[in-house]
Amino acid sequence: MRFLSTRRRSRAAKPIMLLLALMLVGSVYAVVSPATSSQADTNASSQVAAGKAIFEQNCSSCHGLGGAGTTQGPSLAGVGAASVDFQMGTGRMPMARPEAQAPSKPTKFTDEEIAQVAAYVASLAPGPQVPSSSTYNASGLTAEQLARGGELFKTNCSACHNIEGRGGALPGGSYAPSLSKTSDKHIYEAMRIGPQQMPVFSKGVVTDEDAREIIGYLNTVRTQPNDGGLALGGIGPVTEGLWGWIVGIGGLILVAHWLARKGARAR
Ligand code: HEC
Ligand code: HEC
C-alpha cells in the first residue's frame, strides 16, 4: 500500500464517482423515458428495409425479387422468421452454389443482420416466429424429464439422426446431420420448420415441453464422455495432448510457485 496513499486514492475516486453518477442518471433515464409506439413502428419498418437490402444482395439471385422463388431456389413466402433464423444461423444460407443439400457452416452474418432478413421474409407472409429463449431453454430439467426427452428422441428422431444424435445417411444421397454442435434455439426451430427431408414436428405432435426435454437430452448426450478417452469437443488427440500440457505444466508451475513462496516466508 506504499504506492497508493489515501490522499491519492481519494483524488482518483472523484472522477470515478462522477462517472458512476453519470451512468446512473443515464440508466434511470433509459428506464423512465417511455418508448413511444410510433418509434417502435419506425424501428420495425427500418428493420424490414435493412433486411430487404441484405436479401436483394445475397439471396434474391436464387429466391427471386420479393422472395417469389426462381428455378434456383424456392419461394420464401410463409416460411417465417424461424426458417430464416435457422437457415442463416446454421450457415446453410446463402447457399454457395446450387447443390442437393446445403451444409451447415459458420455464418458470415451478425445476429442483427439475420434478424433483419428474418423480419423482411416474415413481412412477405406470416409464418413461424423465432422462439423466445424461455421456450427452448432446457436448463433445470429433472432426471425424469431428461429420460423422457431421451425416449421422445428415440421415437421421433433417432431413425435419421442416430440415438446419440451423431447423424446418418438417408436414401437419395442426402444425410441427417450430427446434432452435437447445434444450438438449443436451432434444435427447436428445426423441429418446427422441418428443413428439407426432415418432417415438421408441430406443437400437436411435440409440445413445447417435449421439445425442451429433447433439447435437454441432447445436451446430456453431448457432455457424456465416450469410450476412447474424453471427446474434448471431438477434435481429437491433438486437443487432448494440448490440455495435458496446459493443465499438467500449468499445475506444476503453480506448485513450484507455491513452494518458492512458502520457502521465502519460512526464511
Ligand atoms: C445459390 C442459390 C441460393 C442462395 C444464394 C440462397 N438460397 Fe436459400 N435456398 C436455396 C435452395 C436450393 C433451397 C432449398 C433446398 C434447401 O433447403 O437446402 C433454399 C432454401 C431456403 C430456405 C428454406 C425454405 C423452406 O421452404 O423452408 C430459406 C429460409 C432460405 N433458403 C433463405 C435464404 C436466405 C435468407 C438467403 C440469403 C441470405 C438465401 N436463402 C440464399 C438456394 C439458395
Ligand atoms: C426423416 C428423417 C429425419 C427425422 C425423423 C428427423 N430429422 Fe432432423 N434433420 C433431417 C435432415 C435431412 C436434416 C438436414 C436438413 C438440411 O440440411 O436442410 C435435419 C436437420 C436437423 C437439425 C439441424 C442440425 C444442424 O445441422 O445444425 C436439427 C437440430 C434436427 N434435425 C433435429 C431433429 C429432431 C430433434 C428430430 C426429432 C424430433 C429430428 N430432427 C427428426 C432428417 C430428419
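^ heme C complex. The two ends are 23 Å apart (CA to CA). Residues 133-223 form a domain with the Cytochrome Bc1 Complex; Chain D, domain 2 fold (CATH 1.10.760.10).
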